[in-house]
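Support request, please re-run this one:
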Amino acid sequence: MHPRKRFGQNFLHDPGVIARILATIGPRPRQRLVEIGPGRGAITAGLLAAAGSLDVVEIDRDLVGPLAERFAGQGDLTVHQADALDFDLCGLTDGASRLRLIGNLPYNISTPLLFRFLEQADCIEDMHFMLQRELVERIAAGPGNKVYGRLSVNLQAFCRAESLFVIGPGAFTPAPKVESAFLRLTPYRPLPHPVADRATLSRLVAQAFSQRRKTLRNTLKGALPPGFLEALGIDPGQRAEEIAVVDYIRLANAAWNSPDLPRD
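Re-run finished. Output below.
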C-alpha cells in the first residue's frame, strides 16, 4: 500500500522510534486506547499487544482491510473507517474511563484535528501525537518566545502541552521534508483558570496576535474600552507575545462579563 498525498500519509517505520513512542505512552491493559490514522500499523502492534484492545480511526478505506487482517487473533481491534474530523470519540467511552489518544497526524490538517479533539476533551485522558516539529514548538512555547502565539494560548488554556522528543525525516516513508516531534497534551481537570467563553478568548487572542510587532494598545483598540487593560493589571504597552495564558483568560473573562461590551 503506497502512501497517498491527499491524505498526507507518511508511514512510520523506524523500530527505535516506535519503541521510544510506545515506552513514552506506556499503554496498559484495560486502558481505552484510540489510535488516529494507524496507517500500516507500526504503532498499532505495540498498543494492541500491551492493552489487549484498541480502537483505530482510519480515513483510507484501502488500509482498513489489511489492518484487520494483519491483527486478526492478536487482540480486540476495532477499525473505524472514518474521518477523525467528524468522528465522535466520546461515543467510544463507557462512562467509566476516559480515552487515551495516539496518532501520527497529517501535517496538512493537524491544527483542525487538535481543536476537534479539544472539543471532546471531557472524555479524553491524554493525547500523544507526532506532528511537524515547528507546530509542536509553537504549541508548547511560553510567553516571550518568538513562536508563542494564538495556537499556544488556545491550547494551553485547556491542556498541559509538552514537547517530548524530535523525530527525524528518515523514520518515515516517504521521508517528509521537515522534522517531526512527539507531543503530549493532557487536558486540565479541573481547569486551573476557568474560561467563561471559548469564542471570546479565541477572538481576543486572534486580534492581539494579528499584528505581532504592535502593542496591545494598538491591536485591541476598538475591541476594548479605554482603561480596560490597565484595570486588569495588564500593561497595554506590551506586545501579544509577552502576555501569559492566564492573563489572556482573565482578559477574555472580563470582556465576557462586562456589561459595556457586546456578546457575539
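The first strand starts at residue 11 and ends at 12. The chain has a mean pLDDT of 92.
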